[in-house]
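Researcher: Batch entry, complex prediction.
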Amino acid sequence: MESFIQLLVSGLATGAIYALIAVGFSLLWQTSHTINFAQGEFVMLPAFFILAVMNAGAPFWLAALIGIVLSVIVLGLLFKVVIVDPMLKYGVLPLVISTIALSLFLKEAAKDFYSSQAQPFPTLVPATDLAVFGAVVSTQSLAVLAVAITTVVALHLLLHKTRLGRSMQATAQNPTLAKILGIQVERMVLYTFLLNAVLVAIASILITPIYLAKFTNGEVLGMAAFLAAIIGGFNQVRGAILGGLILGVLDNLSAVYLSSQYRGAFPLLILIAVILLRPHGLLGRAEERTV
Amino acid sequence: MNRFGAIALGAAAIVAIVAPFFLRRYGIYLISMWAVLTIAAIGLNLTLGYAGQVSLAQGAFVGIGAYTVALLTQAGWPYPVAFVCAGALCFAIGWLLGYPALRVQHHYLAFVTLAFTTLVFLVLRNEEWLTNGIYGINGIDRPVLFGWSTGSALDFYFFCLGMLAFLSATTWWMLRSPWGRAFLALRENPIRALSLGLDTRRYTLMAFAIGSSLGGMAGALYAPLVQFIEPNSFALGLSFNLLLMVIVGGSGFFFGPFVGALVAVLLPEWTRFTEGYYLLIYAALVMVMMAFCPSGLLGLVGRVSKAMTRRAPSPPLLRVEGTDP
Amino acid sequence: MSAVLEVSNLRKSFGGITAVNDVSFEVREGEILGIIGPNGSGKSTLFNCVLGQLLPNAGEVRVDGKPTTGMRPCDLNRLGVSRTFQLLQVFPQLSVRDNLILAGQEHRGSMLSRLFGRSDAGLGDAAERMISFFQLSHLAGEQAGALSYGQQKLLDAAMAFMAGPRLVLLDEPAGGVNLTMLAHLRDRLRAYHVERNATFVVIEHQMEFVMALCTRVLVLAEGRVIAEGAPQEIRRNPAVIDAYLGH
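Model: Structure tokens for the complex:
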């Protein structure tokens, strides 16, 4: 039972990180029909920004802040202006392909310009173990959980309790109507991109201590993001959060109770199950049939 | 096809037949690889360029085809049978994979194929009793067909070239049939196509299954070409590579895969001096291309020739019954 | 005479807005029903629900007594239901003739027989007949994208008729068409109607077109049916006049 709690806590911690990545992904889709295939690499990259700044002599907390800012500029603003906007006029498919190429580009760039070796990454708190309800839980998991949950709550407050957030949601659900209501749709879309950049940067800081900074991180994290978004329902932020948490817990449990060799197969099975049984995801709305 | 295109095609065919006599072993290996990859790219072009779906599993299908042929021929089965099995197996898997994925919107096929590629890699790596795991399968023989031994580099190249000609002719024939018209409708205006009774879902699924089957057949040629296969060759990287090939060549153009595969095979050779940056360059190239010329190199050629001759281009993809030549 | 199309208690909402609110009506064989109403009254949404383009929240649609609510447009088409589009939906790259061939190909044989082209036999002739019926012979080989707007509208209708449908839903066929072409279009529609005893449902804004073509008219306002009857009665109906003036 103790190990179950331990797994549950660390699963929720990982799941909360997946949730952050999935929420950003889901928001991008909703507001601008951008399927960002490079979302995984977006999470991989900020860690390298931070390591580079630290190599230049800055302490971790400062490097982290700079990393977040860099992330907002490069993965938020530049991504939107240089890649997404010019491609949107061609439709969704060329944009998907562009982001696939982008994911490859970012992965290779990290490998070529930083290192192909896994790099250690500082944790938020010194790694020790605590006894919680008789189970041994690492402080790292708790810290991750705390930060992730705080971010998710802050996100929720932003999206539901502030005027800005509600405008962003309205833009996500029905851009035409939002425009009629006087919302500056273009600006809201930009904010979504910036928000995504912040979320992936935070996720990066949280997950890289565990995964180590590797240029290949994007593959796994990207898949987790897509899965969480699909499980929860492509068009719902709450769904992405739920999907991320579920995925994190299941993933952790499966690592222990299933063959470790096939751990990577678990995503496919979940994906197929969701698509077959409940294609709209757990919380998604049944969308209008287009074709 | 206009006159310029016909001449270019004729010249290319002559080059393809004559070139190997001027090349050394490695050069012949390269052009054989080009032929094999083109077949896989033709398959992916069907899925992407004609049916408009992103598949990230074409590399996995090549792998499935390669292992099928390697295992069957080493168990004593005749090569032609193994070849057909590879194609049929990939067709079936493609259908099974696509059926649930295409019932939903949002390019779910892209995600499903992404996960599938991971799964295939894991199976190839873990199931040592079947695939020999990470040690791979060695000593794959080149087939002897009706008395003709394809063992030498030159002979095997002509075998690959012949298969390429045969498979692309078959694809051309399919695209000239009502199916080709259906694919066009599916891509140009799926809403209208639906209202005309065209079952877009089924045609898309068919395109994906056939495309995957071609991937398997490419794999069936790949195995005897390289004569040693291991799981890493068929991981996500190959799928990405094939996707980029189709894009760079021009997705939806019949000859796009030929051009794209040529670029993909030659680019590492040309960028040798950049020491492994070639993938970075390739990816950057694709992004730039998507921004300025999403219809790829052949699209660029089309635009340039349109500007030069100032005549409306014939639909670059297929001929429909009744069109003026 | 049985109803070719039956719509019962259809409702469709988007978020907080109910675009179609409890709409019921029947269309009998051989009728030409016009559906009119001010902008935003839910006409297009109603059409899209009937045609399977949208999934209604409540209510039923039946074609020849068979329930078809939520059926995919391609399956509906094979039951003999066709449509034209408000925004042009021809295939601009193909010639006029090829557009028609494409429009007719899915109704012969199975998917597999289509691969071997056998079901194509006769399709070319059918296309020619349609071309001459609509008097587009001089344009048969032209790229559809090069035609004028009005000519494309004719092609749109021709494509919808290729399969020989029993029921055709026309979405604002007169929109943006000049008067001469309009008369020609109306004439061709009436000719098809007579020849095949087909049933039409027409959404239209242009009153004269509706009055001249339709045998019965339905008026929608804010998602509800507010009047139904012969064209002349509708014209004089105070509720209808109100609805239009109120906007």
